[in-house]
Amino acid sequence: MLFGRFRVFASLAVVCAVALAMVPSGYAGAIVGGDAVPPGAYPWLVRFGNPGEGYCSGSLVSRRHIVTAAHCVSKNPDEPDDMYAYFLTETRPYTVRVVRTERHPWGVGDARNIDVAVLTLERRVRTTPVRLVPSGAMGPILPGSPLTVAGYGMTEHQRPERAHELTFTATYRCDQPGPQWFCADAPRPGTGVRPEDSGAPAFTRVGGGRERYMLVGTVSNHRDHHTWFANLAQPPVNDWIRFKIFGDFDAGQVDREPAAS
């Protein structure tokens, strides 16, 4: 996804500017070195934004809420700028308007830089959400753990591609220090995420059935094949997401339906 919507916080501004300069005008690939996601594989994987300001990726975590990167959305929660969510990996794709965006209060512009936001859709959707990692559960992101990352790109004709996915490996080495982050590497240099994959999910398989995947992080930024993610298991992040889902704002319109128990 293009970084058209974001207002980059200071600690990432230089890196993002360099990354953007590397993306040719009018063309941006999806996850480099990845495989196309088959229709219906990850129906909760979302592309959102608008043609004028660009797009990001995100994950449906309740029937009305999407988790993504804070730098993909405006600071004003009541001005989503004609933003739409596109459920393109569904066997029957559809689109829903985004009516509210909210950044984590310790997010962009704060020294703690929790790069997480929650989007509220105008209505419940039929898609089954992905499970959200339990608060404090760090096992899935221990160094050496395999993680799948999936996101969208744009073709040279500015039309959405199918999502692409790639297996990363969690690592001790991390360009962003602090428990609000974790890092993972793509298989080799020249592969991995690119700026247009902001907000894309990092997830792991936890079993069978409709809730067989668990969301553990969202793409924040990268340096070649080395990527840092917002750590969704960190209690200040995880608890805030669940608080939003349970109806902290617009309680009469928000479904009390978390994606994980």
From TrEMBL:
Gene Ontology BP annotations: proteolysis
Signal sequence, start to end: 1-30
Record carries keyword Disulfide bond: yes
UniProt KW keywords: Disulfide bond, Signal
PROSITE patterns membership: TRYPSIN_DOM, TRYPSIN_HIS
Domain called Peptidase S1: residue spans: 31-246
Molecular function GO terms recorded: serine-type endopeptidase activity
SMART domains in UniProt: Tryp_SPc
Alphabetized Pfam families for the sequence: Trypsin
Source superkingdom: Bacteria
Family annotation (InterPro entries): Peptidase_S1_PA, Peptidase_S1_PA_chymotrypsin, Ser/Thr_Proteases_Immune/Dev, Trypsin_dom, TRYPSIN_HIS
Name of the protein: Peptidase S1 and S6 chymotrypsin/Hap
Origin species: Amycolatopsis decaplanina DSM 44594
